[in-house]
Design goal:
Largest sheet: none
Helix content: over 70%
Number of strands: 0
Low-confidence stretches: 154-169
Radius of gyration: 20 Å
Order of helices and strands: HHHHH
Distance between the termini: 25 Å
Strand content: under 5%
Structural class: mainly alpha
Number of helices: 5
Mean pLDDT: 82
Oligomer: single chain
């Protein structure tokens, strides 16, 4: 029974591959959109504001692709192969690591979306409300991240390690 339960961790290969595949598709779409935005820049009748919004939309797509890639790498590294050869800044050793990296990318996506609204928006009140909502979301993510990292959860040995760098991991 134990062998079966231990083997089921390899099922996570499927969502990992799905996230990686989705990320690759979004990279292609984002690059295509960026190319289209670059073509708009050289056309004489295109408004600069319209071009900026096109570039921001492409960047947003590329950031979403990054989210999917981080999820795919993280799930694979956590459940299947912890010795995956990734840059040090992308190595994930716990669900807290994955959560922290995802929060960072989500904050970047929120910033790009708000910047697009700031450039494109014509109603100052609506733009301000979106900004307040985006700011509240970023603050909530920061508070969540801080609260879960600073909680001093006990590790397997029973001692609290708020840095998440215990020797057991």
């Amino acid at each position: 029974m134990r062998r079966i339960i231990e083997t089921t961790r390899y099922v996570v290969v499927l969502p990992s591959l799905g996230a990686l595949f989705g990320g690759l598709i979004l990279i292609i779409i984002g690059l295509w959109d960026m190319g289209a935005a670059a073509l708009k820049l050289v056309q004489p009748n295109v408004d600069l504001k319209e071009s900026v919004v096109s570039v921001l939309a492409a960047v947003d797509t590329l950031l979403l692709a990054t989210v999917l890639l981080v999820i795919g790498y993280g799930l694979y590294e956590l459940f299947v192969d912890e010795d995956l050869q990734l840059p040090a800044w992308l190595q994930i050793h716990s669900l807290d690591d994955l959560k922290g990296k995802l929060i960072g990318v989500v904050v970047a996506v929120i910033a790009v979306v708000f910047l697009g609204e700031l450039v494109e928006g014509s109603d100052a009140g609506a733009t301000m409300m979106i900004g307040i909502g985006a700011g509240a979301l970023v603050l909530a993510l920061a508070a969540f991240s801080y609260a879960t990292r600073a909680s001093g959860k006990p590790d397997k040995g029973g001692s609290a390690d708020p840095t998440g760098t215990s020797a057991d991991k």
